[in-house]
Structures are given as C-alpha cells and as structure tokens.
C-alpha cells in the first residue's frame, strides 16, 4: 500500500463523493482541495462555483480565498456576489454545498461563530459567512472536517448553519425541502445520516483506523450503520494528482496552504 | 453637477460618535482604511458598524475602543487568523455582536436600497443568528405559500464609507472591470443615506463619460469623494496593489496585547497628520513599488 496521511485520505474520500454532473458550491480549504481533485480525476465536467461568483472555474492552483484571481481567470464567467446569492444559491441551482466548520454535533449542525456564550464568548470566531444559506439552499450538503474531541462536540454553543437541527426533525418541521448534510467525511471515517433519526452514523472506516480511535475523537457516543465498509485506500493516481496540485499551490503562493 | 471633491478630513467631519456606519471592502481587499484611520485620529467613538467580510477596518476601530456594536457576516484577519482587537472587544463584552449570513446582509442592504423596512430570506432557518436577534430577524410566513421565512430589517446606516478605484470630481465612481467580485460595495452604495467614497485616483469627467458601463456609482448618490492613493493599505486594491504582508505582520505583532496595539495606533494612526505621512511612517511608501500589480 502506498503511504498517505489521514488528511490525504480525507480529501480523497471527499473527492470520491462528487459526480461529473454535480454543480458544487465550494468552500476554501479542505472542500476546495477535494472538489478540484474530483475535477482532475473522475469528474472532469463537474461545475465548481465559489461564493465570489466564479462559475465553472478550473483553477490550476488551489485558491487562497474565494476572491483569488485564479478563480476569475479560469472561470466561464463571474457574477457579482449579491447575484450569486440571490439567483444561484437561493434560486436552487446548486446541487451540492461543501462545508467545513470549527465545531460539529451529531446532527451535523455547524458552529463557526463562538466558543462559549454568545454575549460573552470564550473565543469569538470570525462568523458564518455564507454557510447558513449554503446549508439550507443547496440540494444536499457534504461536510469535510478533521475529527477531534474539541471539534466533534456533544452540544454546540451556537448553531451557525443548520444540519439536521438539534433534534433531527427541524428540517422537516420547518418545511425545508433540501436534504441537508448527507455525508460527513473526516480523516478517520465517513458518516451518513440515519434514514430515520438523521443522526450521523459511520458507514465507512478509513484504512488503519479503529472504532476506538473514532470514539476517542468524537464527543458523543458514535453510532454505526447496519453495514460498515472499509474505505478503499487512496490509489496511486489519486495521491499523485492531489500532491501535484498542492505542490503547484505551494509554489504559487510561497508556502502558505 | 456639483463638485464633491473634498479632503479626507472634510469628508469625514460629519461623522460623529454614536453613528452607524456601513463599511465596505471584503477580506484583505479595499477596506476603507485611510478613512478609518482618520476617524480614529479624530477620536470618534461608540460606533455601530455594518459590514460584509471585514478585517483591518473593524479591527483597527475595535483597537481604538471606537466600536459599540458590530453587525456583519465575518470579522477576522482572513489568512492571518482571527481579528485580535475585535475578538478582545467581543470577549470582554465591550462590543455587542449580531451575526448575519451573506444572503441576510445582502437582503438588508437591498431593503435599504428599495426603501423597504425588511426583506424576506430563507437562509436563517435553524440558525441561532435568528434566535439570538429577535430585534432584527423575525419569523414570518410567506403570504402566498405559507412557507417559513425570516424578515430581516433594512440596513439603515447613517453613513456609508467605501474605497473605490477611480472617480471624477462630481462623485461618479468607476470600477475597472464590468463585474467586480467578492464584496458588496455597490449594493451598500445603492442603499446609502450619506455616502462617502475614497478613491485611488480622481480622473477627468470626460474619461468617466468615455466608458459609461464602468460607472457603478452615480454622483447623485455621493456626498463626498476623496482622492486617497493607496487608501486601502495595508490591504489590497485589485488591479493596482497587493496587500502589504510585511505591514500586516507588524500590525498583528502589535495586536497581541492592548498595550502594544496602543503604541501601534499612536505611531501609525494618531501621529501621522495626513495619509501621506501615514504612508511614510508605515514604511508603505518604500514598499509600494514592490506591491504594485502593474507588472502582474
């Protein structure tokens, strides 16, 4: 087996979840690496959209921000940010939204706002950006985050972007027609929502990872689907393409990311 | 047409303590930092800020103890992490925060521009942004379908301050490209009551007229226009100059404690009497050629 890091496994597992005909709203960081890996391997026709309004973008290096010139230069066109949010996102033209966050709970709600109380927080984080509307308006949501007890928590101090709500019933109760988080890809495993309760349950475990390790890095009792499979290890091609784009990115941006 | 070209001091003189300001820019681009430094120099306090993705503008005002309340989508230092002074202000309880999503803040400025008290959004269903802010975000049912929505209150700023590329003395402001990306400055301008624009360059009216499709902000909306070359420093102004990473690192080094941040403000904001003196003091003047994107 080729050597690979847990982060590479996470990015590759996330990339595999994407299809050629997806229209994907891409966040910076891990989602961006996964989406471009998919585009450069099995999904060459995937439509990537960054929230800065760049449509069908095909960056040669990973962008540092949603406003990176690389995205505009390699896009079919760029629409203004208000237009992007009014007509593309709210208009229901995006099939997959790809999110990350500082903290997540067992119903895949995300927090990027505060640690501690809202009015006197222990840590004030930067805020939600466009994540709340990505979570409600995209056809379905993929989330990719590295697992740790600090980030996979039993109770969120603040729900920035709703996954399946605090009880798992909120989306239906609120009349939201989109599916919400259908896949959570971590550095250890892949979760999918239980069809009934909507609690995120492990469906696939990455090579070399144990159930104990998953539990140690999750702040709630982890549930497993009836059938749990082994995540196939990264192929040589997947690793080569991923490392190649990251090397190009590092060269272009002088070491950051 | 009325001449609206004034000095930075004159343009910002009407802004008093206690005002609500909409501040433009996005992340490390076109934050109206020269205007912000002028407000700090004047000792304006107790401000409510309405922003898109804000970095240096909000963090400097927070460092000066000038912010009472912030409403926006993001306040951080982007690739440099959290906004240290803003964060201290919020964590100490000095700054009250009300968070919005991108659609929600766009809707608030659209409402202001359209003369409506609110605009409906679907974005905040299930988000604590709504439950923690019943004053400005209220549940409503769609009058046609009965669907659950939220009404978000119009963004009513006393003053709107943005940094643009070029304009004429009558306040007509142009963008260098037909579709700019990333920020919502043009939308903020369309909903402004009193709009103050700093620009990199004042150009002849004839030049503005020669390319009418690039004029995004008509002079009728503008109260004052000011020529401030490198007015976004230490952040970037696309197509003209990149962010000054060296100065941003110096800023963040000082921002580690309130004391050292105080010396930063004294040295780089309060002591220089003009924007030119700031560019000299901050070392920006010497670095500007290397930050220029003309060759890129």
UniProtKB/TrEMBL annotation, chain A:
Q: Kindly state which keywords UniProt assigns to this record, in alphabetical order.
A: Transferase
InterPro entries found in the cross-reference section: CoA_trans_fam_I, NagB/RpiA_transferase-like
GO molecular function terms listed in the Swiss-Prot or TrEMBL record? CoA-transferase activity
For whether the record's keyword set contains Ion transport, the answer is no
Q: Does the keyword Electron transport apply?
A: no
The UniProt entry, under SUPFAM superfamilies, shows: NagB/RpiA/CoA transferase-like
One Pfam family hit: CoA_trans
**Superkingdom of this protein's organism:** Bacteria
Q: What is this protein called?
A: 3-oxoadipate--succinyl-CoA transferase subunit B
Species of the source: Alsobacter soli
Automatic annotation (TrEMBL), chain B:
Q: What is this protein called?
A: Acyl CoA--acetate/3-ketoacid CoA transferase subunit alpha
Q: Which GO terms describe its molecular function?
A: CoA-transferase activity
Q: Which UniProt keywords apply?
A: Transferase
Pfam families to which the protein is assigned, alphabetical: CoA_trans
Name the residues that span the membrane.
none
The record's PANTHER family line, in alphabetical order, gives: ACETATE COA-TRANSFERASE YDIF, CHOLESTEROL RING-CLEAVING HYDROLASE IPDB SUBUNIT
Q: Which domain of life is it from?
A: Bacteria
Which organism was this protein described from? Alsobacter soli
């Amino acid at each position: 087996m080729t050597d690979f890091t847990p982060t590479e496994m996470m990015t590759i597992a996330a990339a595999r979840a994407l299809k050629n005909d997806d229209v994907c709203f891409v966040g910076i960081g891990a989602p961006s690496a996964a989406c471009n890996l998919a585009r450069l391997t099995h999904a060459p026709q995937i439509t990537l959209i960054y929230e800065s309004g760049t449509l069908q973008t095909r960056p040669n290096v990973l962008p540092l921000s949603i406003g990176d010139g690389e995205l505009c230069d390699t896009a079919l066109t760029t629409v203004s940010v208000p237009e992007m949010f009014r007509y593309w996102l709210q208009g229901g033209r995006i099939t997959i939204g790809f999110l990350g966050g500082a903290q997540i709970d067992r119903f895949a709600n995300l927090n990027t706002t505060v640690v501690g109380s809202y009015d006197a927080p222990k840590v004030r984080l930067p805020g939600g950006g466009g994540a709340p509307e990505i979570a409600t308006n995209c056809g379905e949501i993929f989330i990719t985050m590295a697992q740790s007890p600090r980030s996979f928590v039993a109770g969120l101090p603040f729900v920035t972007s709703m996954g399946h709500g605090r009880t798992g019933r909120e989306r239906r109760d609120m009349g939201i027609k989109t599916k919400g988080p259908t896949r959570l890809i971590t550095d250890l495993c892949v979760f999918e929502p239980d069809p009934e309760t909507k609690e995120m349950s492990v469906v696939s475990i990455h090579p070399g990872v144990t159930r104990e390790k998953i539990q140690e890095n999750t702040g709630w009792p982890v549930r497993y689907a009836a059938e749990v499979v082994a995540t196939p290890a990264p192929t040589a091609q997947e690793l080569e393409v991923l490392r190649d784009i990251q090397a190009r990115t590092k060269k272009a941006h002088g070491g950051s990311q | 047409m009325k001449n609206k070209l004034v000095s930075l001091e004159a343009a910002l003189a009407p802004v008093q303590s206690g005002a609500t300001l909409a501040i433009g820019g996005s992340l490390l681009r076109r934050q109206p930092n020269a205007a912000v430094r002028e407000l700090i120099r004047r000792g304006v306090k107790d401000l409510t800020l309405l922003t898109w993705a804000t970095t240096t503008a909000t963090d400097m005002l927070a460092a000066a103890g000038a912010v009472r309340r912030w409403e926006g989508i993001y306040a951080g230092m982007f690739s440099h992490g959290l906004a240290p002074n803003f964060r201290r202000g919020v964590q100490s309880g000095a700054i009250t925060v009300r968070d919005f999503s991108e659609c929600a803040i766009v809707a608030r400025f659209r409402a202001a521009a359209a003369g409506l008290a609110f605009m409906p959004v679907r974005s905040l269903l299930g988000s604590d942004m709504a439950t923690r802010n019943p004053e400005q975000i209220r549940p409503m049912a769609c009058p046609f379908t009965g669907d659950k929505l939220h009404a978000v209150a119009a963004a009513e700023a006393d003053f709107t301050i943005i940094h643009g590329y070029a304009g004429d003395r009558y306040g007509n402001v142009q963008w260098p490209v037909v579709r700019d990306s990333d920020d919502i400055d043009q939308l903020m301008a369309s909903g402004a009551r009193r709009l103050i624009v700093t620009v990199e360059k004042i150009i002849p009216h004839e030049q503005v007229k020669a390319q009418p499709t690039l004029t995004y902000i008509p002079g009728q909306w503008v109260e004052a226009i000011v020529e401030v070359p490198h007015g976004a420093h230490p952040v970037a102004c696309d197509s003209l100059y990149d962010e000054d990473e060296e100065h941003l690192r110096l800023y963040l080094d000082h921002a580690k404690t309130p004391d050292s941040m105080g010396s930063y403000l004294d040295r780089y904001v309060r002591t220089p009497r003009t924007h030119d003196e700031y560019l000299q003091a901050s070392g920006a003047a010497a670095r500007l050629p290397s930050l220029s994107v003309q060759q890129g």
